Amino acid sequence: MGTVWAKTFRLEVVDDRTPPTATRQHYERQRRMRRVIEGGPQNLDFSDIA
Question: Of residues 50 and 12, which shows the higher confidence score?
């Protein structure tokens, strides 16, 4: 469990005709498009720039 702090927040009940803002397919497509760096960040001090 976690905690959410929000100053202005509203939830609304909608019917099945309202499309979701993001689907699982959306997130999977974004992940495939994103370049993933294996092993985490490298050369953060830019010392290897030629």
Answer: 12
